[in-house]
Amino acid sequence: MKKMMILGAGIYQVPLIQCARRMGFETIVVSIPGVYPGFEIADRVLMIDTRDKEQVLRVAMEEQIDGICTTGTDVAVSSIGYVCDKMHLAGIPQHAAELLCDKARMKEAFLKGGVRCAQGRRVYSYPEAAACAKELGYPVAVKRVDSSGSRGITMVYEEKDLERAFEHARERSNQQYVLVERMLKGCEIGVDGYIRDHRIAFLAPHTKFVYRAEYSTVPVGHAFPCSLSAAVLDDIREQMQRALDAVGADNCCFNADVFIDGEKSYVIEVGGRCGATCIPELISVYYDFDYYEAMLLEASGTRAHFPEQEKGVPCMAKLMTSPVEGTITGIDASGLEEMKKSGIDVMIDHPVGAHVFAMSDGTDRIGHVLMKTDHEKTLDAAMSQARRCVMINGRNLEELWRN
């Protein structure tokens, strides 16, 4: 039996583990200790920090794995690249993984490689940040360089807010610098896909739903298709190819944030793995193939078939979140089951008694609602129905959000 090592055991890795088991792989899940749902379904669990490249490599070589993979998180990508290089496995090269896990180094590679992107640079101190912001012109984005899910990012519109934003990014980072970049105009979308043999084999642009927090926006859902002209689609492909070439990414999934302004696309940042927030599930529905299976095939060294065009039906999904911190005090299982019977994919991540946090970034999810529709209002109606089935601190989520 072939062995697949999966880094991470969180909610976004669960479908990957389940798919690997369906495909006949022995699943070896690597994770730090904690209450993670992937532990219950893995064949074996190894309690190792996924960021510890040497330890991950050591156990990968001991197990003689056939592939290594993750989804929905940047934390483990560097270790995947390291193991792939050392064991000659299919997957992202280490140097590319390192660049894609550091927003400042990624930005420098984009600018050097001629990628159309926002101007910006790394800064080590508040005076440097102030000088950079003045040079670029407000508004600017101040970013922690080693995070994902919109964590450690602040949109700054006036100089008086810059120091707070700089400290917010710096104090949460493992690096001594942060990234300051010009904020772009236009519409932000997501772009996922797969690059193989240095050419994009699959490209999936999608609409992005965001929650607008006080200082930043957090992705809370996505929709397919993304209505774009043929010219814009061609430009996205060209800029994404340049971006992937600039960092040396190959034989891996990618997930990107892209701004569209008129007929031009601007690459904000790229991750060397598949996106989260139901993106693999939506891709599977809209393109009519199992994206998790394709990831695992490629990771094991077997070529997957990627569709050249859309085959499925329009679909969209949003995360269920809470506006307050508290405890899940009730779940109406029968109400959720009725939704599932009507063809709506509704999932609750936590049981009654679980502690949940107020929505602040992409990790603060309670569940999701996914359905086949091209009308956001239809999805929102289903979201309201699902929220009424979940109680936080004795009140249903729908009431909490409305108040």
Structural category: alpha+beta
Name the assembly state: single chain
Radius of gyration, in Å, reads 21 Å
Question: Any idea of the CATH topology of the largest domain?
Answer: D-amino Acid Aminotransferase, Chain A, domain 1
- Please give the alpha-carbon distance between the first and last residues: 53 Å
Strand arrangement, major sheet: 13-12-9-10-11-14-18-16
Which word captures the global form? globular
Number of helices: 13
Secondary-structure arrangement, i.e. CATH architecture of the largest domain:
2-Layer Sandwich
Task: Give the tally of structural domains.
Answer: 4
Describe the protein.
With 403 residues, the protein is an alpha+beta fold. It folds into 4 domains: 3-89, 3-Layer(aba) Sandwich (Rossmann fold); 119-182, Dna Ligase, domain 1 (2-Layer Sandwich), CATH 3.30.1490; 187-299, 2-Layer Sandwich (D-amino Acid Aminotransferase, Chain A, domain 1), CATH 3.30.470.20; 315-402, Aldehyde Oxidoreductase, domain 3. The chain has 13 helices and 20 strands. The protein has helices at residues 14-22, 53-63, 77-87, 94-100, 103-112, 126-136, 162-171, 230-247, 279-287, 291-299, 333-341, 376-387, 397-402, and strands spanning 3-7, 26-31, 44-47, 67-69, 120-123, 140-143, 153-156, 178-182, 187-196, 199-212, 217-224, 252-261, 264-271, 315-320, 326-331, 345-348, 355-356, 367-371, 390-392, 395-396. The longest helix is centred in the middle third of the chain and has 18 residues, at 230-247. It is globular. The termini are far apart.
